[in-house]
């Protein structure tokens, strides 16, 4: 019993350490004109990629570039720029890769259409399979009655 | 027979996808710049260690030049320094050093210690110009033609192969063209 309790304690502590280690970046305090603007800031920084650490977004990253780009987003927001204008600003400088949600355009057709194509192929295979089994089902009872 | 071959074909296709994916992932660290063939972003920056002196995009029009983003904090910049120095010795192209996100005293000390390969060094203290250039690592190097258009960009450490194969031929092209 004692061993079991100790085990649970150690496990809990180990797990909590890894949670604590995932600290969120120290975000510089920012003043917004209104709550809606702050919400837009949150959404935008979550949708924009930090290019230094390419699998983090601007909101999560603690890199210097992410700090600067967050400040840039904030400044454009308070200057009255629209979300699209801010994204455009980033794409002009860093390319489409900065967007976590890739735009639908010529070089991303494959990306956007591939799931549909795969689904279609799956459906065709499924249909062929069902047909084959239907034929088998029709033929087996005959064999059994024949026995 | 057909139903046995099908999973095998599927497996081979998956392997091919994996290999292609890994190849692409390798290139991801070197993203194509959307700024190629676009005009140089506007800048008007103070010249390093020359109080009161400034240099803008406009004043550099009319000749090809290289923009090299560097900082005294950047280890890779130190590593590519001999290549930039060698290129400067050729006198083939005007080299602008963009000292970004750096303290000017540190930058001056760095240039004094290792040698100054730049024809001019500009101070981008808050990194605004580096953002306009889409810089996300250091060093980054841009080649600009006489009309002020970016024709080539290199991310990371410059090597002599890149200078010889990418930069010098383009500069020679500009000069024979004009």
> What would you say the CATH architecture of the largest domain in chain B is?
3-Layer(aba) Sandwich
The SS-based structural class of chain A is mainly alpha
Count every beta strand of chain B, where a strand is a DSSP E run of 2 or more residues: 7
Residue runs with pLDDT of under 50 for 5 or more positions of chain B: none
Largest sheet of chain B: 5 strands, mixed
Question: Which stretches of chain A of 5+ consecutive residues score pLDDT under 50?
Answer: none
N-end to C-end Cα span of chain A: 63 Å
- State mean pLDDT of chain B (0 to 100 scale): 91
Question: In sequence order, what are the helices and strands of chain A, one letter per element?
Answer: HHHHH
How is this structure best described in words?
The complex is a heterodimer of chains A (147) and B (178). Chain A is mainly α. Chain A has two domains: 2-103, Cytochrome C biogenesis protein (Helicase, Ruva Protein, domain 3, Orthogonal Bundle); 107-147. Helices cover 67% and strands 0% of the residues of chain A. Chain A is flat and about 75 Å long. The N and C termini of chain A lie far apart (63 Å). Chain B is of the alpha/beta class and 178 residues long. Chain B folds into two domains: 1-30; 32-177, Glutaredoxin. In chain B, 43% of the residues lie in helices and 20% in strands. In chain B, the strands form two sheets. In chain B, strands 5-4-3-6-7 form a five-stranded mixed beta sheet. A two-stranded antiparallel sheet of chain B has the order 1-2. The N and C termini of chain B lie far apart (67 Å). The interface between A and B is medium-sized, with 15 and 16 residues.
